[in-house]
Design goal:
- The protein is of the alpha+beta class.
- It has 16 helices and 19 strands.
- A five-stranded mixed sheet has the order 5-4-3-6-9, with helices on both faces. A five-stranded mixed sheet has the order 15-16-13-10-18, covered by helices on one side. A five-stranded mixed sheet has the order 14-17-12-11-19, with no helix packed on it.
- About 4% of the residues have low confidence.
Length: 586
């Protein structure tokens, strides 16, 4: 007979299962409660970060300090809530584990950034005095920059490390709302790393580059985006700047006719010759076709030195669209018969002036006047905070490139976006689109572009697909309604109103093209190696209203990486860039 009790082994098994279930319920409740708290804290971090950016932009350092303390508190709380053994154990589970890991990683990164980067940056900003930047009578007090360099160096190192860790979080393995949060955090950290890295570079470079250790001379090359070149546009106005003890003065102005074509071209890299023959080496205006500014900068310096004899310590290239940002800091500007505002200056310089002033020599004179007036206003009347914001926005859009003849300075510049070097693939994979006009006019004011990337697998191989759609948005009657100087009037064999453009697409380092087409058809292309990157170049002729789409698929080393970013030539209208689902063209 049975006494109604289960055998000992079965009772033990039932108790064991019961204990496990209870522990699992408690663990789920534990991580659930802590997860809600962590998410709430991270939401506070995000909200306060947005307010912090606004406070710093307004120069309100007291408010910024208060917000930084709040961010640090919530980030630390989120980190504490997501770093205990139970939470970390859930991170090891299949399927749901990546979500727990992502939250704890985001919290840890936010905590490190808040404690080790935000506060040092604010202390540095306070020492620098954002309200004045030491700017007095066009001279910059260089002493504070040396004082803040160590703090900015530590903050920059922290943010660079945080960016690397943020890029390592697999957002695609998490639930959609969390994936969006991870991507937003990644974007914020990347932006912060870029800005603080630039500030650190400035603190390290500005004293010597602005003449604290002896006078310096710089060639300023102004690019016209209405006639595109790889780094922004054809060189138009050129000037020589003198820097000494923090004071910058405009010494001399020149224009392209002052630099006749050379019978013997300057030496060029094999990749430049493969894409553009020897034209950049012969013509001053084509030197910005060179994709790598570490090659273009010294070539521009050589042309100036050979023409005028002055020694050159560096080259600064800026584009015309940058004036929009600068006028936001200086206010309206008058040059020649024109008065330009932030809203009108780009249209005026890149379009309207050609109809109002048909004579190219008179145009060059007005461009020179505009450059001089803008430089004078920036150094004497602009609010320093607004000026920094304008320069920061321009640098973020890759509209400023700098080369230094001094090796120690150039090493720092080349490692930053300001150096204009071809990118290196490390935590992110880069692809790029270079645009060079061969119409001979100023038709790229009417150009439009869209760039998409697609990542996945084609024919069993990891694949990165780059698609470029190029448009000629000029009016249908451009041949007669636009000035001949704008259309080139057929002088270079392009029908008036049409555009002819060299479109160069380069892929990840080590990858090679597996498929190339234009509007669905395979056509002949130029090819070149840009370092270890394979580049293909199409020559595209478009009448007004027409467009063309180029597709290149890359396979091999570096292809198929989800963290792929697009670099491109700065245009009047910034190209639309997007990520789409891969549809294998091959």
């Amino acid at each position: 007979m049975s006494d109604g009790r289960l055998p000992v082994r079965r009772r033990w098994l039932r108790w064991t299962i019961g204990v496990i279930v209870i522990l699992l319920v408690l663990a789920i409740g534990w991580v659930g409660i802590r997860g809600i708290g962590a998410v709430n804290n991270l939401q506070e971090v995000a909200a306060s970060s947005s307010k912090l950016k606004q406070a710093i932009g307004q120069g309100d350092l007291d408010k910024a300090a208060s917000l930084s303390s709040r961010i640090a508190h919530h980030a630390e709380s989120a980190h504490d809530l997501t770093s205990d053994p139970i939470w970390l154990g859930f991170g090891l589970l299949p399927w749901i584990g990546p979500n727990f890991s992502a939250v704890s990683d985001v919290a840890e990164i936010a905590d490190d950034v808040a404690s080790d980067a935000l506060l040092p940056v604010l202390e540095a900003a306070d020492a620098l005095d954002l309200a004045s930047l030491g700017l007095s009578g066009g001279a910059l007090d260089l002493a504070p920059f040396a004082q803040i360099e160590p703090s900015l160096a530590d903050a920059s190192a922290t943010l660079t490390s945080a960016e690397t860790r943020a890029l390592g979080i697999d957002a695609d393995a998490t639930l959609p709302p969390l994936a969006d949060a991870v991507r937003e955090m990644r974007s914020t950290v990347t932006q912060a790393a870029t800005v603080v890295g630039a500030l650190h570079g400035a603190s390290a470079l500005l004293p010597s580059m602005l003449g604290a250790e002896g006078p310096r001379n710089y060639v300023l090359a102004m690019q016209n985006n209405a006639e595109l070149r790889s780094s922004g546009g054809i060189i138009g106005a050129i000037a020589l700047l003198h820097a000494e003890n923090g004071r910058i003065t405009l010494v001399q102005q020149a224009s392209v006719p002052d630099f006749p074509a050379l019978d013997t071209p300057l030496p060029l890299s094999e990749s430049t010759v493969a894409l553009f023959e020897d034209r950049p080496g012969r013509y001053m205006q084509n030197l910005t076709s060179i994709p790598d500014f570490t090659e273009a900068g010294p070539a521009i310096a050589t042309r100036w030195q050979n023409r005028f004899g002055q020694p050159v310590d560096g080259v600064i290239a800026v584009d015309a669209v940058m004036t929009e940002h600068l006028l936001a800091a200086t206010g309206p500007l008058t040059f020649g018969p024109f008065t330009a505002t932030e809203e009108t200056v780009v249209d005026l310089l890149l379009s309207e002036i050609y109809a109002a002033v048909p004579d190219p020599i008179a145009q060059d004179e007005i461009f020179s006047q505009a450059a001089g007036a803008l430089l004078s206003a920036a150094l004497s009347t602009a609010d320093p905070k607004d000026l920094v914001a304008a320069l920061s926005a321009s640098a973020d859009e890759r509209r400023i490139r700098i080369w230094s003849a001094h090796e120690d300075e150039q090493a720092i510049l080349a490692a930053s976006t300001l150096g204009g070097a071809l990118p290196e693939d490390d935590t992110q994979t880069h692809v790029g689109v270079l645009l060079n006009d061969i119409t001979g006019g100023k038709m790229d004011f009417y150009a439009g572009a869209a760039i998409t990337t697609s990542i996945g697998t084609c024919d069993g191989e990891a694949t990165t697909q780059v698609t470029v759609t190029w448009k000629n948005d000029a009016p249908a009657d451009a041949a007669t309604s636009l000035p001949p100087y704008v259309t080139a009037d057929g002088f270079y064999g392009v029908p008036a109103g049409s555009t002819r453009t060299l479109i160069t697409v380069y892929g990840p380092e080590g990858a090679t093209p597996s498929h190339i087409d234009r509007d669905g058809e395979e056509v002949s292309v130029q090819t070149a190696l840009l370092g270890s990157r394979s580049a293909v170049q199409h020559e595209v002729l478009l009448a007004p209203g027409e467009s063309s789409t180029i597709t290149v698929e890359y396979q091999g080393t570096g292809a198929g990486e989800r963290l792929t970013v697009v670099d491109h030539t700065p245009m009047v209208t910034t190209p639309e860039t997007s990520r789409e689902q891969l549809r294998c063209a091959s």
